[in-house]
Design goal:
The complex is a heterotrimer of chains A (642), B (226) and C (259). With 642 residues, chain A is α+β, with helices and mostly antiparallel strands. Chain A contains 17 helices and 21 strands. In chain A, the strands form six sheets. Chain A has a five-stranded parallel β-sheet. In chain A, strands 11-17-16-12-13 form a five-stranded antiparallel β-sheet. A four-stranded antiparallel β-sheet of chain A has the order 18-10-20-21. With 226 residues, chain B is mostly helical. In chain B, helix 1 crosses helix 3, helix 1 packs across helix 7 and helix 6 packs across helix 8. The longest helix of chain B is centred in the middle third of the chain and has 31 residues. Chain C contains eight helices and eight strands; from the N terminus they run ββαβββββαααααααβ. In chain C, strands 2-1-5-3-4 form a five-stranded mixed β-sheet. The longest helix of chain C has 16 residues. Chain C is elongated and about 60 Å long. Chains in contact: A-C, B-C. At the A-C interface, helix 3, helix 5, helix 6, helix 11 and helix 12 of A face helix 1, helix 2 and helix 3 of C. Bound molecules: flavin-adenine dinucleotide (FAD), protoporphyrin IX containing FE (HEM) (2 copies), iron/sulfur cluster, FE3-S4 cluster and FE2/S2 (inorganic) cluster. The site of flavin-adenine dinucleotide has 44 residues of chain A, from helix 3, helix 6, strand 6, helix 7 and strand 17. The site of FE2/S2 (inorganic) cluster has 13 residues of chain C, from loops.
């Protein structure tokens, strides 16, 4: 398949404005005739639905939670970037663009990234106008902090709850449109499939999670903002309900899936405490500004009380390996080193499945240097959160940290208009692959979700609709009926297996499998092992799953089962993508491809492309399509943090 | 504009909060009355002449008496009616209760408002009958409108009467202990800087009223006032 | 490091909104004290599934105390005994071996039970829809720093804005009042300059909707504040009352309410 990014040419700073000017408009009087389906009410979906409604389109918005306000965007702690240069530290749109392309390890599309940087400033204006209470200085002006090792302070934040406040802003805008009658909200409703009519996305099949009613929702365009697929790993910092169903089902209907192997691991999460563990909790990256990371030199000390381990017996490995950056090395490096230490048997904390997976993040020195008061001012809310979860007091006992899956850069392939390879199917937010390349910089996902939702999709979707005549197909259309039947059949099948294993047990097994083989460090052998195992697991799933109850009621096991079924298919593609990419880039680290000092080694000659996978009907034989990446402005270079 | 979707600008009685504000005002009026009423009654410690003269001086001013009475009546009726409305509402708000419910923050006084209130109502009715309309001749003492002091002393020499007044006024104290603070919330009279003091004041008055009102009957019963 | 305990749970089971419900007794064995409360329920559910029984339905999503989806009443206290936390952030170390716990859904007419411990909180969404927003058109916003906001105001607004919409305030309130939730949003927006133009209308509309949903009134019990995982202060309820009374005194026009 010929992949055309439709990225405009010309000077990069004019591309978006030119493109906007050339995008077609829909006459305001006609807009309400167009039905826009938005899946998701997070930053991307919520912002998009609100904006479409305001423009006068007839919008239906779906989310699986009981309220649109609960989308997982709510959990973002750190902040959101914007090139406002309020701190006068030399920031600019171009610098944010530059940092993001570089941070993405040269695997992102320049035009998209520049647009993102350009729009970042409008996002802050928009959110402040909505009443988002960003942190302020005593002057009453907005405060910024430097985040994730950036040299400029361009991150806007609202205590440790930036995502929550931004989402509530979008939720309120959405609520306003619901009140105005332009948006119809469908909470507790899950999209289970995409309806494609004559090659165009014309609707979705949904299940009402309360009544179990399966329905065909028809529209003129479908906008997917259903979030990331981090939960394929079972344990992640995602919410329990986060799933790949919406994107995966669309993939099976013809949308290409791009770069699934680009997953981001966050170095500072609270380690697993037992095999009952249901999710992992992230601790803000800012902790590494003052905390020192160490493990015992001697494996024998690992079971000891850290207070009993003398300085001389501690290995501050990040400071040792990276004298200049020390504890502030980028996420992927900090994560991999932590894994190495634990693999060497020098991990700390409780043994889970025979291994101690944790490293110390020690504030002892910071408290000595700054005093407990200052440390408390900076981190108290985080310390409390940590103590609530672990029962240990970080002021006394060093924190224990371990990396966890946190964000997924891959997603459905989209062009510059955020349109997938299925005309009429647009994808925004974490669900698409667009802007972060192989590795996302801190505080840039919130930015992307809102840029897509508030500013990009309204333009590009209108442009699409302008060339379509409204309506024309309803749920009686054979294609709609066929998709409905597929979904109903799948649900009945899940309920009919009546085997012995629970959805969670399959999910845990899959999660462990991909985490071990397609997690922080990946090898050919490991990936091949996983690729061999997953189909077998899938097979067993369809033989031996147990789901009690019926489909005509609130049935949380059935919901899980459906999501796990899709992860079982998606997981294989993720591993195949990782296997095919014979290089290390950003979040994708193939141990075979590293520099002598253990850094990711890109192979720009062979792999400077987007890997967009096509569903062929045979899960074991996905077809690879390539979108070559060219860099006119930021020229690929090898990063080094020594 | 169909009636279903629009509503005239709200009046106080349209919302629970408006009602609550009125309740607070009526409560405040009653609160004010019991304070001054207590102060007046405390004059019984100054002997028959002073007390009777005080009573007389009020009663001689018909305008004042009926003015006050009507205000009190309106306040009390409003208070009671609103309470009934608000409580039918809050009962309906939780059709199915908890098997186990712990209160962590609320005070005993707050939790018992709905009992102390009605009890006060009964008390007030008895109290009016006792001293005013018609005025009861208890314990062989002939009630005499001309001699409030006499009625007062005679009444409280009877242990059960005193017991009744004392307990009723303890209830009143509880009612006001929470009520005095709650009315500030209801009227939105709240400022982080002054909250603590305002609450203290409200509770202080509640305490004084109770103390004053409890001392009098006891003083009579124990012969300090005779 | 970790203890294990055995517990007895009396859990409210109810198949559907209109089905009758009752308490059912379950035993939770070998519960690790590092488990979260919901992980403990997960374990119980896995055992039920193994026996082919319907697992206990309960709402949850983020499991890190921010989405506001979780919430059950544990031994008479919404979100359980540990103050300032959500059910998902409550860990079993707050309990001891042999404890017998009663687990009930939020109880309020405006929060009908959907199934077991799952309730319908859409009333909260309707209260926000009635006016809990600032009407700003996408793309029509002025430069963010063009309007400085005193730090104290934006911090206080933030305190109110941290509400996660969990409904524990309603569950805890003896009158099943939604005062704290509604007050938090009204106060958040009333404290900011951007919120001024719609300020009084907002208070009227949201309170009218709050009443229309059938929540009880506020008697200043303070149970809501005590149960609130975000420690939202009932000082905001006083603020809401003030906002509403001012708007009644000054409102010229009609307001819309949706029920
Ligand atoms: C713990 C944590 C901390 C983070 N911190 C930061 C940070 O500090 N800065 C930053 O920039 N980024 C951060 N991120 C990343 C960022 O929060 C997310 O990438 C971003 O919010 C995703 O937004 P979204 O709108 O694309 O998806 P989401 O917010 O996840 O929304 C997905 C929506 O889709 C709906 N949905 C999903 N599947 C279906 C279905 N099948 N049917 C119907 N509806 C469905 C859901 O109900 C939900 O409404 C963090 C992420 C996590 C997990
Ligand atoms: C001397 C007589 C009384 C005084 C001084 C008084 C005073 C008050 C005050 C100040 C309040 C607080 C209002 C608020 O919270 O805003 C109150 C509340 C209340 N009063 Fe009274 N009251 C009196 C009599 C009664 C009577 C006769 C009843 C019985 C029906 C009653 C029932 C209540 C109840 C139930 C409340 C709580 C209302 C609520 O907050 O929901 N009171 N009262
Ligand atoms: C121990 C405490 C109290 C004592 C000793 C007391 C005494 C009296 C006396 C002697 C009178 C009659 C006055 C007269 O006829 O000249 C009276 C009238 C009255 N009392 Fe009290 N009282 C007490 C508490 C209260 C309380 C708590 C209330 C309110 C809840 C109250 C409400 C009234 C009212 C409404 C009248 C009628 C006033 C009138 O004539 O218009 N009293 N009281
Ligand atoms: S006010 Fe507190 S308890 Fe009530 S919904 Fe908000 S967060 Fe929950
Ligand atoms: S508990 Fe209820 S009574 Fe008021 S103060 Fe809180 S809403
Ligand atoms: S599950 Fe999100 S707050 Fe508890």
């Amino acid at each position: 398949m010929e992949l055309n990014s439709r990225a405009p040419a010309g000077p990069i700073e004019n591309r978006w404005s030119d493109h906007r000017f050339h995008s077609k408009l829909v006459n305001p009087a006609n807009r309400r005739k167009y039905k826009v389906i938005v899946v998701g009410s997070g930053l991307a979906g919520g912002a998009a639905a609100a904006s479409f409604g305001e423009m006068g389109y007839n919008v239906s918005c779906f989310c699986y939670q009981d309220s649109p306000r609960r989308a997982h965007s709510i959990a973002a702690q750190g902040g959101i970037n914007a090139a406002k240069n309020y701190q006068n530290d030399g920031d600019s749109t171009y610098r944010l663009f530059y940092d993001t392309v570089k941070g993405g390890d040269f695997r992102a599309r320049e035009s998209n990234v520049y647009r993102l940087a350009e729009l970042s400033v409008n996002i802050i204006d928009q959110c402040v106008a909505q009443g988002v209470p960003f942190a302020r200085e005593y002057s009453g002006l907005l405060d910024n902090r430097s985040f994730g090792g950036a040299q400029v302070a361009r991150t806007f934040y609202a205590r440790g709850q930036t995502g929550q406040q931004l989402l509530l802003g979008a939720y309120q805008a959405l609520s306003r449109q619901i009140e105005a009658g332009t948006v119809k909200m469908y909470p507790r409703t899950e999209m289970l499939d995409l309806i494609v009519v004559d090659g165009r996305a014309r609707g979705i099949v949904t299940r009402d999670l309360v009544t179990g009613k399966v329905d065909a929702q028809m529209g003129d365009v479908v906008v997917l903002c259903s979030g990331g697929y981090g939960n394929v790993f079972y344990l992640s910092t995602n919410a329990k309900g986060c799933n790949a169903t919406a994107t995966w089902r669309s993939h099976r209907r013809g949308a290409l899936f791009a770069n699934p192997c680009y997953t981001q691991i966050h170095p500072t999460c609270i380690p697993q405490s037992g095999d009952y563990q249901s999710k992992l909790t992230l601790m803000s990256e800012s902790l590494r500004n003052d905390g020192r990371v160490w493990v015992p030199k001697n494996p024998a000390d690992c079971s000891k009380d850290p207070a009993q381990i003398p300085e001389s017996e501690r290995d501050y490995y990040l400071e040792r390996l990276y004298p200049s950056f020390g504890n502030l090395v980028p996420r992927d490096i900090a994560s991999r080193r932590a894994k190495d230490m634990c693999d060497q048997g020098r991990g700390v904390g409780p043994e889970v499945a025979g291994v101690r997976r944790g490293v110390y993040l020690d504030f002892g020195d910071a408290i000595k240097r700054l005093g407990q008061k200052v440390v408390a001012e900076r981190y108290d809310n985080l310390f409390q959160m940590y103590e609530r979860i672990t029962g240990e007091d970080p002021y006394k006992v060093p924190m224990r940290m371990y990396p966890a899956i946190h964000y997924t850069m891959g997603g459905l392939w989209v062009d510059y208009d955020l349109q997938s390879t299925i005309p009429g199917l647009f994808v925004g937010g974490e669900a698409n692959f667009s802007d972060h390349g192989a590795n996302r910089l801190g505080a840039s996902a919130l930015m992307q979700g809102l840029a897509d939702g508030y500013f990009i999709l309204p333009v590009t979707v209108s442009n699409y609709l302008a060339s379509q005549k409204a309506g024309g197909v309803d749920q009686h259309h054979p294609a709609a009926q066929a998709t409905l039947a597929d979904v109903q059949g799948r649900l009945d099948k899940l309920l009919a297996i009546k085997g012995r294993r629970t959805p969670d047990s399959f999910h845990r097994e899959l999660g462990a499998l991909v985490w071990d083989n397609c997690g922080m460090g990946r090898t050919k052998e490991g990936l091949e092992k996983a690729i061999a195992r997953i189909p077998a697991l899938r097979e067993e799933f369809w033989q031996n799953l147990t789901v009690p109850g019926t489909g005509e009621e609130l049935n949380q096991s059935l919901e899980k089962a459906g999501r796990v079924a899709d992860f079982l298919e998606f997981g294989e593609l993720m591993c195949r993508d990782a296997l095919h990419r014979n290089e290390s880039a950003g979040g994708h680290f193939r141990e075979e491809y590293q520099t002598d000092d253990g850094e990711a080694k890109r192979n720009d000659d062979e792999f400077s492309y987007v890997a967009a996978w096509e569903y062929t009907g045979d899960l074991t034989k996905p077809k690879l399509n390539k979108e070559p990446l060219t860099f006119e402005y930021v020229h690929p270079s090898q990063r080094s943090y020594k | 504009m169909s009636a279903a979707t629009t509503q005239k600008a709200l009046t106080l009685t349209d919302t629970s909060i408006g009602k609550k504000a009125l309740l607070a005002v009526s409560g405040a009026i009653l609160f004010g009355f019991v304070i001054q009423h207590m102060l007046g009654n405390l004059q019984v410690f100054l002997g028959p002449d002073v007390y009777n003269h005080y009573a007389e001086s009020i009663k001689s001013n018909a305008a004042l008496v009926w003015g006050v009475r009507s205000v009190l009546l309106v306040a009390l009726v409003t208070h009671v009616v609103l309470v009934i409305q608000l409580y039918t509402r809050s009962l309906a708000a939780r059709p199915i209760g908890y098997r186990v419910k712990k209160n962590i923050a609320t005070s005993y006084a707050a939790a018992t408002m709905k009992y102390s209130g009605p009890a006060l109502l009964l008390y007030i009715l008895f109290h009016l009958a006792h001293f005013t309309f018609p005025g009861l001749s208890l314990g062989g003492h002939e009630f005499s409108p001309m001699d409030p002091y006499g009625n007062f002393v005679a009444g409280f020499q009877i242990p059960w009467v005193t017991l009744l007044y004392v307990s009723a006024n303890l209830l009143l104290g509880m009612h006001l202990y929470h009520g005095g603070y709650s009315l500030l919330q209801s009227l939105g009279l709240n400022h982080p800087r002054y909250n603590a003091r305002a609450r203290l004041a409200a509770r202080g008055f509640a305490f004084l009223v109770t103390a004053g009102n409890v001392v009098m009957p006891l003083a009579v019963l124990f012969g300090l006032v005779r | 490091m970790s203890r294990t305990m055995n517990l007895v749970l009396n859990v409210w089971r109810q198949k559907g909104a209109n089905a009758p419900g009752q308490f059912v007794r379950y035993e939770a064995k070998n519960v690790n004290d590092h488990m979260s409360f919901l992980e403990m329920l997960d374990v119980v559910n896995e055992e039920l599934l193994a026996k082919g029984e319907d697992p206990i339905a309960f709402d949850h999503d983020c499991r890190e105390g921010i989405c506001g989806m979780c919430g059950v009443v544990i031994d008479g206290v919404p979100h359980g005994p540990l103050g300032g936390t959500t059910t998902c952030q409550l860990h079993m170390r707050s309990f001891k071996d042999g404890d017998e716990l009663t687990i009930e859904p939020w109880r309020a007419g405006a929060f009908p039970v959907v199934r077991d411990l799952v309730v319908d909180r859409s009333a909260f969404d309707r209260i926000i829809q009635a006016g809990g927003y600032i009407s700003v058109r996408t793309g029509a916003a002025p430069e963010a720093n063009s309007l400085p906001i005193a730090k104290v105001d934006s911090d206080t607004a933030f305190d109110a804005a941290t509400c996660i919409g969990c409904g524990a305030c309603v569950a805890a309130c003896p009158n099943a009042s939604a005062a704290l939730f509604t007050a938090a949003k009204i106060s958040h927006l009333a404290l900011l300059p951007q919120g001024q133009p719609e300020r009084l209308d907002r208070a009227r509309k949201m309170v009218a909707q709050m009443d229309a949903e059938g929540f009880g009134h506020c008697t200043t019990h303070g149970e809501c504040e005590a149960a609130c995982p975000k420690g939202i202060s009932i000082g905001f309820i006083a603020k809401m009352n003030r906002e509403l009374l001012t708007s009644m005194a000054t409102a010229p026009n009609d307001v819309n309410t949706r029920k």
